[in-house]
Amino acid sequence: MINLEIDQEQLKELYLQKVEERLEALESEVFFMNSRQLAAYLNMSWNTICENLLYDREFPSLRLGSKWLFNKKEVQMYMDKYYIEVRNNGGDILKYKRRG
């Protein structure tokens, strides 16, 4: 006779870990983001994005009618460069914007 015991907490932890891994994989597959997704991705308000990033000619954005679309990989590359530039110029986005 085989006796099988299942640790419910360990099973729950394993399940949640696998769900999290799958969600991360799905999130990385997103090609274009809309303005709400971009704001969440950058952890910035839409107004801050408009004032400091959106109208920069190098910021990767497309307009589709009244909607904005953003390529996630290109945004990440832009933000990597932007971060370094701001840090090298005092670390304050608002002061950096005034210089640029």
Number of strand elements: 3
Structural class: mainly alpha
The largest sheet is:
3 strands, antiparallel
Radius of gyration: 21 Å
Percent in helix: 55-70%
- Proportion of β residues? 5-15%
- Contiguous helical run count: 5
Order of helices and strands: HEHHEEHH
Low-pLDDT stretches: none
- Large-scale geometry: elongated
Average pLDDT number: 88
Give the N-to-C terminal Cα separation. 76 Å
Can you characterise this structure?
The chain is mainly alpha-helical. The chain contains five helices and three strands; from the N terminus they run H-E-H-H-E-E-H-H. Strand 2 and strand 3 (67-71) form a beta hairpin. The longest helix is centred in the N-terminal third of the chain and has 21 residues, at 8-28. The protein is elongated and about 75 Å long.
List keywords for this structure.
three-stranded antiparallel sheet; 5 helices
